[in-house]
UniProtKB/TrEMBL annotation:
Protein name as catalogued: NAD(P)-dependent oxidoreductase
Annotated ranges, domain NADPH-dependent reductive aminase-like C-terminal: 162-289
An example molecular function term from Gene Ontology annotations: nucleosome binding
One GO term describing the cellular component: chromatin
Domain 6-phosphogluconate dehydrogenase NADP-binding span(s) in chain numbering: 5-160
UniProt keyword Oxidoreductase present: yes
The organism's place on the tree of life at top rank: Bacteria
UniProt-listed InterPro entries: 6PGD_dom2, 6PGDH_NADP-bd, HIBADH-related, HIBADH-related_NP60_sf, NAD(P)-bd_dom_sf, RedAm-like_C
This protein's UniProt keywords: Oxidoreductase
Protein species of origin: Mesorhizobium mediterraneum
Amino acid sequence: MKLSISVVGTGRMGSALARALLQSGYRTTVWNRTKQKAEPLVALGATVAGSVLEAVNAAEIIIVNVSDYQASAVLRDDAVASAIRGKLIVELTSGTPHGAREAAEWVAEHGANYLDGAIMATPDFIGTDAGTILISGPRQAFDANEEMFRALGGNVQHVGEEPGRANALDSALLALMWGALFGALHAIAVSQAEEIDLGELARQWTATAPVVDGLVVDLIKRTNAGRFASDNETLSSISPHYGAFQHLLELMEARKIDRSVVNAYDAIFQRAIAAGHLHDDFAALSQFLGKSR
C-alpha cells in the first residue's frame, strides 16, 4: 500500500503537487490557510484537513509548499512540532540555502527526517516527464521515497546531502534566467527606440541563441577550470566585448533608456580591466563577482 501524504499549502503549485499525487494513487490530505483553495481537490479524491495538526497526523510524509519559509512556521506550533516525530518533512517552498539548513536542524531536533527541494518548473509541468525538482538532504530518505518523487516529475534529482544545496542551485539557475529576461527587456527597449519590429527581434534571437548558449557553457567550463587567460580555445576575450558594450551604453544614453542595470555591468568590466584582464578570456570576469579561485 502506498504511503499517505499531506500537502500543506494549496496555491497553484501546491494544488499541482496534490493532483499529481492523487493521479498516482497516493492517499492525499491537503490543508490551506484559505480552505476554499483546497476544496477543488476533494473531487479528485483528496481529504481536506481542518488544521495543520490534522494534516500532519493523517500522513507519513508532509510536503510543504507555502509562500516562503516564514509561512512554514505553521509547523512550529507545539502540538504540530510534537506530531512530526518519525515522519518525513519535504520542504518545497522557495527559500534560501541558510533557511533550508536552519529548517533541517529544527526538524531533526523534533525527531523527524527532512528533505529540501527547489521546483524548477511552472505548475503545468508537475506530474509530467519534464517536471524538474531538485532535492537535497539525506540520500537514504530520498531513495526510500523515490517512487513518490517520480510522481511529482520525471526529472526529480537528488543533488546532495547538504540540505541547502537545492536552494543554492535554484538561486544560481534563476540568476541565469533573470539575466536572460532582463537582457530581453534591454533588447526590447533598444528595438523600440530604434523602431525595430519586435517580431524581427524574435527571429534574430532564434538564430543567435545557440551561439549565446555555447558561450554560457564555455564560460562555466573555463571558470570551473580556472582558465582565465586567453588561449587557442578562447571564444571571446574581454576586449571586443567591452568595445561593443560601450556602443550599447552610448545608444541607451542617446535614447534615454534606463541604464541602471548595464551601469553595474560596466563597473564589473572596469574592475577587471583595471586589474589587467582586458585581453583575457571573458571568463576572467567571474573573479570580480565573488570569491576568486
